[in-house]
Amino acid sequence: MSFEIREITTEDRKKVLEIIEVEWGIPIIVKDRTLNPENLPGFIVYDGENIAGLVTYNLENNECEIVTMNSFRRNMGIGTALIKKVKNTAKAEGCIRLWLITTNDNVDAIRFYQTRKFRMTAIHRDAIDKSRKIKPRIPDTGCYGIPLHDEVEMEILL
After folding, report:
1. CATH number of the domain residue 25 falls in
2. 59, 93 contact by CB (below 8 A)
3. How far is CA 121 from the centre of its chain?
């Protein structure tokens, strides 16, 4: 499959909001911060009329944070291509670090990012438990039945 990655446009925002609400829930709480990724810059991949991939990011203090990442066609290179696009954007903006947070249960994401040279830099113990007080819809149990408690911070230095 060949695909084209492009910046999220104003016309995409409604679909982006729908995806983020279903996949992530709004707002996103990371490291005691509240983020609204539906308003952030990002890149999108369409497969005909359907969105095949989506990433949003936040540029701040010479760092670029990947806030949301979804690939709806696995093992086709969409996620890798989205990471590369964000990484190139971050470099062009003068960022020194590309980073993200995932949850302790998300072993598929941890594997994905590690095989793309991200390194674990911190475990934020009980961060999800704290976030759950603000966003009660966060479940107690996540992927593979793993209790959901901690945030895992990962990075690539640029």
Report:
1. 3.40.630.30
2. yes
3. 16
Q: Which residue range forms the structural domain that includes residue 101?
A: 5-157
pLDDT, mean of residues 36-56:
89
In this structure, what token pair is assigned to residue 22? 């279903």
User: Looking at the whole model, is its pTM more than 0.85?
Assistant: yes
Q: Give, in degrees to the nearest 5, the angle at Cα 106 between 56 and 110.
A: 75
Contact of 12 with 56, CB cutoff 8 Å: no
- Chain centroid to Cα 51, Å, comes to 16
Model confidence band, residue 1 (pLDDT cutoffs 50, 70, 90)? low
To the nearest whole number, what is the mean pLDDT of the chain? Answer: 91
How many folded domains does the chain comprise?
1
